[in-house]
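Lab notebook, bench 4. The sequencing result for the construct came back, and we need a structural model before the next group meeting so we can plan mutations. Quick request posted to the team channel:

Model the 3D structure of this chain.
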Amino acid sequence: MPDNYYSIRLALKHASVSKKMLEIVEAAGGFEVLPATDARRPDLLIFELGDNHQKDVNLVQSLLDGDDVGEVFLTSEVADSAVLMQAIRIGAKEFFSHPIKPEEVQDALLRFKERRKGVVPKTPSKHGEIITVFGSKGGVGTTTVAVNLAVSLSQKKNVQSVALLDMNTLFGEIPLFLEISPKFHWGEITKNIERLDDTFLRNILTRHSTGVEVLSSPAHLNGHLKPTPEIMTRLLDLMQKMFDYVVIDGGQSTDETSLKVLQVSNRLLLITILSLPCLANTNKLLRSFSDLGYVAKDRIKIVLNRYMKKSELSLADAESGVGQELFWIIPNDFKSTMSAINNGKSLLQIESKAPITKSFMELADYLDPAAEKLTKKRWRIFRR
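Done. Here's the predicted structure in token form:
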């Protein structure tokens, strides 16, 4: 067999699926399809799960554990989350639901060849920016800011990919804010960290209609292992290579895992509101983060949420209270914000022309180093 050919075995239960898969493999070129009587170890096994999924999964697992095959692609008439999760856990590189889509199989075969040759995939590795949104206290709108910032970033012409990570480790609310029903969450990663790669992660993420890829937190207490600092370092390193921006809803937790997330973030948006207790807490957090060396002071940006011009406290009072200049000011719009939350939509989808929506879009512009549209003068006019 020529050096640029790979052996492939088709273990497919339905004749129609077998015929179609054979046509796709032959059209792809570079593969030798092994007959059933050939005992050679295949470089690739394409295996169809039957009615007894668990039995078939166990068989494939034993083949992989015994190094009897190189890689495995799975296909099945049933494509629910449990079956897909089993496929990911045992190490299957690809999963095809029925009916077979030729373009999906062709792309998978191309990726297989690239892996075997040690060639870097055609999609260049990114070095995205990690932005953590952190609340100075509960109820300041941290999730609202994280969700709408992620959506606003995803609408920029020069931004190809945005991920939204929910680090509220108990009952995160991002799925409610975006009206999505994730099949998976980061608990799957903590249980399967040894299998974490771009294929595994993309199967875990939930894509929102705006293009934002969401990695939610568990929806209930079910014994999932909490993410450790080591797991978060590995996860965020991978996400940074896959996305232009990774926006993290950091909640208010200050455990060691949350602090590790802050350490690896490019920017920390610390959310506050115009109330003395909140401003005082913001000041304490600022000093704690910088004094303990978790986040450099120049990477911490204060975002004032729910600003009302007729508030008893002024912007100058706020800056005096936190001991630092305000980075961004988001106007108060209770009606639009609650309408968006209650409808499971972003502000851009509910009130695209509202001042609060414009504020998020301009914040996305200002955070983008490639977009120098906002001059310092324009920024000053806007924020004051």
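Residues 6-117 form a domain with the Rossmann fold fold (CATH 3.40.50.2300).
Will bring this to the meeting.
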